[in-house]
Amino acid sequence: MPKVIEKLRGRGVEVVVESGAGLGALIPDELYTAAGARIGDPWSANVVVKVAPPTSEEIGRLSSGSTLIGFLAPLTAKETTAALKAAGVTAFAMESVPRISRAQSMDALSSQANVAGYKAVLLAASESTRFFPMLTTAAGTVKPATALVLGVGVAGLQALATAKRLGARTTGYDVRPEVADQVRSLGAQWLDLGIEAVGEGGYARELTEAERAEQQKRLEEAITGFDIVITTANVPGRTAPTLVTAKAVEGMKPGSVVVDLAGESGGNCELTEPGRTVVKHDVTIASPLNLPATMPEHASELYSRNVSALLELMLDDTGAVAPNWDDEVLAKSCVTREVAN
């Protein structure tokens, strides 16, 4: 974003922006040049920043000894990591930034999850055949919709807050019991199924086979009572857990909606078709991919701040790249490292 470029320029960093890079977020090249950037070929720069993992052709354009920052999917795209290492590139994965207090400004997973959670509720509202809020009209009173959010990390909490603002009666569920207070603080109810799975780094651990079976049985019974179900459950590097079975969908009221935010890793709903919106048993199941990209202005603004905060951490007083490898944030977010001979 232009404001971030101004900040980096103040640190002595020269910024090159690829022509048209900001058009999807309604930022013309002129705004970048006005902020002090140069429009040109960025691939020969000391540091290259992007969003999605690089293609093999893009990796071939990187210089040996350069630095790459972006979402690199290190747990699932191991061939990308191997190619970056072979190319002599030091690469930092935004999804590997540790979730500690000092690194909150660099936590791109959280910033983009906020966007996704918000937009998921708007998508559910647009697909629903019912009002979200309670309405008292001359024709009678309309009851509020009931919304269940499965997986209450950043995206789930934002979904609960947004659904509450729209007037729905909200309920949250997660296998991590410590988030129950966060759910209640948003005015939502907590769905207690009696199953706990606390993992590392703020994520849930993978459930055992017996725990999964019991969870599905209890969820099937609970899900049928809701008009809206939004799922956000992901386990890093693994297939998304199935939370909404075909049987649960069949038991939901006609006109109900399921929004599955885990489509990119297989989906939390058994009937999900990633990237598509389908109707099964008179229930609409939407599984958008890269939902933050549908709100490019604010998604870009947040991601830009995350990246610049990480980049500034590795700059020395002259604006040169000089990472301190004793720094926990840099050490953990680095997935390939070019070591000088």
TrEMBL record:
The transhydrogenation between NADH and NADP is coupled to respiration and ATP hydrolysis and functions as a proton pump across the membrane. GO terms for biological process: NADPH regeneration. It comes from the Bacteria. Keywords: NAD, NADP, Nucleotide-binding, Oxidoreductase, Translocase. Its EC number is 7.1.1.1. It catalyses: NAD(+) + NADPH + H(+)(in) = NADH + NADP(+) + H(+)(out). GO terms for cellular component: plasma membrane. This is NAD(P) transhydrogenase subunit alpha part 1. It holds the Pfam family AlaDh_PNT_C. GO terms for molecular function: NADP binding; oxidoreductase activity; proton-translocating NAD(P)+ transhydrogenase activity. InterPro entries: AlaDH/PNT_N, AlaDH/PNT_NAD(H)-bd, NAD(P)-bd_dom_sf. Residues 125-287 form the Alanine dehydrogenase/pyridine nucleotide transhydrogenase NAD(H)-binding domain. Residues 2-116 form the Alanine dehydrogenase/pyridine nucleotide transhydrogenase N-terminal domain. Transmembrane segments: none annotated. It comes from Pseudonocardia dioxanivorans (strain ATCC 55486 / DSM 44775 / JCM 13855 / CB1190).
